[in-house]
Amino acid sequence: MTRLLQLLGIEPTNEEPPSICRRALDALHAHSLSEGRRRARLVLAKAHRCACCQGLLDHVFDRIGSTLFIDDDPRSLAAAFPANERDADCQEVLAALILLRGRPRTAPACA
User: Fold this and answer.
1) The whole model's pTM is what?
2) Using CA atoms, how far apart are residues 62 and 110, in angstroms rounded to an integer?
């Protein structure tokens, strides 16, 4: 967790979660990055046993691209999926992927 915070340029604190991933944490109903990551692992474990969520996981990179960013909004990303690949857990699954596999956005180097 500390390594992720260092990559994001955020000092770890116990009180406030990093604002950069607030939307993903909110979707997982988590109050801290460590709690969010714990819940994300549980959500993904559950998703692998759900037919609808499995479809979402199978097509996530086809629908939204190969890179998830830590500041992505799970609600906005869910709109990229057809109704038959979305259910009540869709936003949580996307938030879990964002927290566990997302990376910080970086600006291209000036030439």
Assistant:
1) 0.77
2) 30
Cβ contacts of 105 within 8 Å, gap of 6 or more = 69, 70, 71
In sequence order, which residues have a C-beta less than 8 Å from that of residue 15 and are 6 or more positions away? none
In the chain, domain spans: 22-101
| Average pLDDT score over residue span 13-23 | 68
Helix 51-64 / helix 33-47 crossing angle, nearest 10 deg = 110
94 pLDDT tier (thresholds 50, 70, 90) = very high
How far apart CA 14 and CA 77 sit, in angstroms, is 29
SS3 69: strand
